[in-house]
Each structure stands twice: as C-alpha cells, then as structure tokens.
C-alpha cells in the first residue's frame, strides 16, 4: 500500500469517524504516523481553543505543551509512541490556546496497515481538570483534618474508598510510637497492643454493644512499640442493616493519657485531704469544752505543735501554770467568802481603785 492510497483510505475513514464522534464529550485527535494532526473533533476545538484548520499539519505538542507540562512525562510519552505501544490513561498537563493549563488523560491507539506498519494514531482525550481540583481539595481537607486530629490527640480507623482496606490515621501510629505504613490495619490490630489482662473484658463489652446496636465507648491501656503505656478512648457506631448489626469499620481513637494522669493526681489530692479530715476528727475530743465561737484551727494547731516544744519549756510552763492556778484559786475562795470586806477595802484604798479602774 503506497502513501497516497493510505491517505485516501485515512480520509475516508476520518469522514466516517467524524459522524460518529464529533458530538462526543471527549476530545478526539487523529494524526498520521509522523504525529501530525489530520483531524480533531469539535470538543477538542472547544476545550483547547484551536480550530481544525489551525491544527492540521501541526504536532499536538507544538500546540498544547507549555510551562506546566512535565518534561519527564513528555519524554516517557515519546518513548511509548516510538515503540508503537498503546497508551492508556496517561495523565499530562497541557495548555489551551489562551495559555490556561488543564489536566488531560490520554488514550492513544496506533492504527496499522495491512503490513502491520503504523500509519496513523487515534487519540481520545478526557479533560480531568475538575476531577484533579476536587482531588486536590480533598487532599487539603484531609491534611487539615490530620493536623486538627493530631492537636486533639484524636486518630481514626476507617476504610479506604478505593481499595476497601482498613487503615489507621497517622495519629494512631503516633500513639503507639510507630511509623505509618501501607499495611491494612483495623480495630483488631489496635487490640493487639492492649494490656493482655484487659482484652477479654474489652471483647465482651464490644460484643454486647454490637449485639444491642448501641454506641461503643471503650477506654483501655495500650503498650506502644517502645514499651510505653498509654490510655486510649475508642468510640464507634455498629454497622446495622436489615435488623442485624456488625462490628464497626470506622473508629475514633483518642489519646487520653494526660486526662487519666490528671484524674489520678486529683484522686491523690482528695485522699490526702480525707486523711487530714480523719486526723482532725480523731483530735476533736480534746477540744470538746471549747466555746462554739473559738477558733478551730488554733486549737488543732496547739495540739499538733505540742510535741514539738522543748521538754524544759513544757516543764517550766507547766510549773508556772500550776503556781498561777494555785494562787488564783486561793484568792477566788477569799473573795467568795468575804465579798463585802473586799469591796470596802477597795473603797478605802485609792491605789487599788486606780488599779482596778
């Protein structure tokens, strides 16, 4: 088959192709074996801004490659084309006539003549710019969520949409002192790090909650890869359908180690205060005769400090107290027996009146 016959056959074929694909939502490009454009459909012109007359005779790269087109990907595509291989879902950044970049997925099939030689290429291209933008937006949201969860010490166990495999978030790996990996990891994998003596109770509690279709809220200790002990709180909702519930596939995993430490500190402080109250109750009989308005802490302080005084101090003070107590008692007895005489003496003694005043 000579080139003229090949071109005639290609022209006839393009005429039929135009009727089939001109209204397609995908871009369609036909080139000769030298990769020079022979035909493009209306969608190609609408997306790229290049009309059919402007495209004919040009190579696609001359019109579409620009600053954001990866040189590495361009070279890889060129190698595939030279080898006569089919290209499937090859992603590239092209540029419109206006210079605006867009993402495209290429599917290129070589067309061979009767001798098996490549005489043309058929390329079907899909504009995936919107999809890439959505993926980028999703990735940004995921990154922000990861940061927020890390700050809140909150991780998660969920299922990948694409593969259906269970996975841990980076925070779960951090709690256990592990480096993130691509291995499938579910809640059973987390239970493998739980304290052995807690596992049986955890499984019973989990089974009961799932059977009842109730929200699950578990707190338990885990041992990290380096031997560190942490507390985690795991929450989930059973997967229920048609009256039957199964273990959840999505979990939240929160590091509550600091919270548990604060609770323990509070418990110890309360125990110390309770101990002081018990000591105070034991000492209370020593002060049963005090006036109701007496200062309570003063009496307790005197009793507690009594053992700290020097022995000689205690003896000397006790002696003074006894002497004062004896003299005072005799005088009070005298006043009680002769009150009138006592008042008379005070009335006849100016010095005493002044002193008593």
Describe what you observe in this structure.
The chain is of the alpha+beta class and 357 residues long. It folds into three domains: 3-127, Beta-Lactamase; 135-255, Beta-Lactamase (2-Layer Sandwich), CATH 3.30.450; 309-357. The protein is 50% helix and 22% strand. It has 14 helices and twelve strands. The protein has helices at 3-21, 42-48, 52-55, 60-64, 71-82, 129-151, 170-175, 187-191, 196-212, 257-283, 296-306, 311-337, 339-348, 350-356, and strands at residues 27-32, 37-40, 87-95, 101-112, 118-127, 154-159, 166-168, 216-223, 229-236, 239-241, 244-246, 251-255. The strands form three sheets. A five-stranded antiparallel beta sheet has the order 2-1-5-4-3, with helices on both faces. β10 and β11 (244-246) form a beta hairpin. It is elongated, with a radius of gyration of 47 Å. The N and C termini lie far apart (147 Å). The model is unreliable at 299-336, 340-344 and 350-357 (pLDDT under 50).
